[in-house]
Design goal:
Layout (H helix, E strand, L loop, with lengths): L4 E6 L3 H12 L4 E5 L4 H4 L1 H4 L5 E5 L7 H11 L4 E6 L4 H10 L3 E4 L4 H17 L7 E7 L6 H14 L5 E5 L7 H5 L7 H6 L6 H7 L1 E2 L5 E3 L13 H14 L2 E5 L7 H9 L2 E6 L3 H16 L7 E8 L7 H5 L8 E4 L2 H10 L3 H4 L4 H13 L20
Parallel strand pairs: 1-2, 1-3, 3-4, 4-5, 6-10, 6-11, 7-9, 7-10, 11-12, 12-13
Antiparallel strand pairs: 8-9
Helix pairs in contact: 7-17, 11-12
Bound molecules: adenosine-5'-triphosphate (ATP) and magnesium ion.
Amino acid sequence: MTKELKIAIQLSRSEAAKTLSAKGKELAGVKTFLLTSSMAEKGELAVKTTPDIIIIDDSPDAGNILARIRTIRSNFPDVALFLVSENKDPKQIIDVMKAGIAEYLVEPVTEKTLFDAIEEVRAKLANEGKLAQGSIYSFISSKGGVGATVLAANVASSLALDKKSSVALLDMCFQAGDASVLLDIDPTTTMLDISQNIHRLDVSFLRGAMSMHSTGVNFLAAPKNPEDSEEIVSDHVHQVLQLSRKLYDHVILDCASMQVNDCSVEAFNQSDKVFVITDMSVPAIRNTMRLFKLIKKVGISPDRIEIIVNRYIKGGALSLSEIEKNFEKQVYWLVPNDFMDIISSINRGVPLVKSNTSSPFSKNINQFINKIQNKLGDPEFRGIRGTFGKSL
Ligand SMILES: Nc1ncnc2c1ncn2[C@@H]1O[C@H](COP(=O)(O)OP(=O)(O)OP(=O)(O)O)[C@@H](O)[C@H]1O
Ligand SMILES: [Mg+2]
């Protein structure tokens, strides 16, 4: 199953069709193609594929609109049919909706209306099991400041920059979220707005609460005031994550350091992997042991919990094997210490994977993404090579 949505566009004005097609393609995981006159009415043999969405208009030259809708619907029973029209007459709107139009798009069609309508279809298909649901990855530091936010923001950005998949980054540090600083975003809406209006949560509301970053990451910020975090309960986290995994291929969670509470347990429950971040210091290593046990104790299977050593330095006071003796399982990944590059990226508010693709850190994150997607040439590779290029 793929998450790519196929959208066929059959409009009488070819310029309008091209504009709509270009707009649709801006959404990750969307493929658009143009149909020439009445191909949709001729059926699958003419169209050559089964689209998920067909967009038509009601040009009188193309024939009676109700008859056309019925023909297209019988040719493509599962398709979501959108109608673009200048006509705002309620009677026409009711008639075409009854005939089987899923979305009535009044011209000029705004980007928001179009994108929300497309995402609504994506969520519906995911609900019905016809599209794969996205994966969720949590990042949690074993001690304040060891790097969960830097890693989460860069992993999300790197996934989004390849333009092949849609990515959301959720700041789960409800009391003191700072992922927005790394992305240089001043969000107008946050998770608090969702919590306070949870009964309204749907595709359009969730998308509206997100801030779009220049990397293509859809970012949901944490509340601005720490005291507001109390309004967010685990059921809100549950609902937001359920919907997010229907809309996005990858959902990255930047979790609060060392925090295991109802909300973070809900996040871990829904995560494909929970990455516990440590550095090479003794306190962080000790906390990693404790945090690993705690996350296991709340019911997360150990094969979903992985340890990442951040700021790894070859030949440091402790060797990797000495560090690993403390853990229940092998370290999953090592991230190099790249202090100057990271600091300059934080100061500029641009994730390092975007501002400097050739830095050791950026290359490492790109490899990490291959690792989590099982696309690494050498499955043993853990991010940094030892002497003679062997995997550590
Ligand atoms: N791989 C790295 N190389 C060098 N410096 C790093 C690296 N990763 C993180 N840092 C430094 O560590 C600092 C803290 O990182 P970050 O904010 O991601 O930690 P955190 O675990 O999310 O902290 P908090 O507990 O505040 O949420 C960053 O500002 C950056 O300077
Ligand atoms: Mg953080």
